Recover the amino acids of this structure.
């Protein structure tokens, strides 16, 4: 049922998009030469970019569960920087993040209930795999920014900033000013 709704919404979207195409032109390169690394939380959809004053085509946006620094994030940022002209990176974590304290036991039970074989979970430390960061949101932002700044495959000559976002109000708090560090 949901798939039909999605396809119908897409049909209507494409019709509107075609009518407004000229006003919405955007290139493959980020116009503001900015990359954002953020969480995939649904509360940020249609809120985060406008709260930053950004429009379509102005920034590359990379998301994952919890704004957790992984090699895939580094790969995406490296492409954005070296191939797409990004000159600044902003890490944005948010308050009330579900990945602050992920429940590994609940995850395990849900996985088993959905058909994951118990033997496939043997030896998997789900708590470590989920990579929760506790309630220290500021520390988490600083850690991710430091990880990017110190990664051997990322350049040292661009600013890496860190912000904390409130998904209820849209307020941003500066945690790391990449111009000063």
């Amino acid at each position: 049922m949901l798939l039909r709704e999605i396809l119908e919404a897409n049909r209507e979207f494409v019709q509107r998009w075609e009518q407004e195409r000229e006003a919405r032109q955007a290139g493959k390169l980020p116009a503001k030469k900015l990359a954002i690394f953020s969480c995939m939380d649904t509360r940020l959809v249609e809120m985060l970019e406008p709260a930053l004053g950004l429009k379509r085509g102005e920034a590359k946006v990379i998301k994952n569960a919890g704004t957790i620094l992984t090699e895939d994030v580094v790969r995406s940022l490296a492409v954005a920087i070296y191939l797409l002209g990004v000159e600044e990176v902003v890490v944005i974590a948010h308050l009330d993040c579900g990945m602050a304290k992920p429940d590994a036991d609940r995850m395990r039970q849900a996985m088993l209930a959905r058909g994951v074989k118990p033997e496939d979970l043997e030896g998997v430390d789900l708590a470590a795999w989920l990579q929760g960061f506790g309630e220290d949101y500021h520390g988490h932002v600083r850690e991710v920014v430091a990880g990017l700044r110190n990664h051997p495959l990322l350049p040292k000559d661009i600013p890496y900033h860190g912000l904390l976002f409130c998904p209820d109000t849209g307020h941003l708090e500066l945690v790391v000013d990449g111009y000063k560090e």
Notes: Residues 55 and 123 are 45 Å apart (CA to CA). The mean pLDDT is 92. The helical segments are 2-19, 48-51, 71-82, 104-113, 118-121, 126-130, 137-149. The chain has two domains: 29-98+135-176, 101-131.
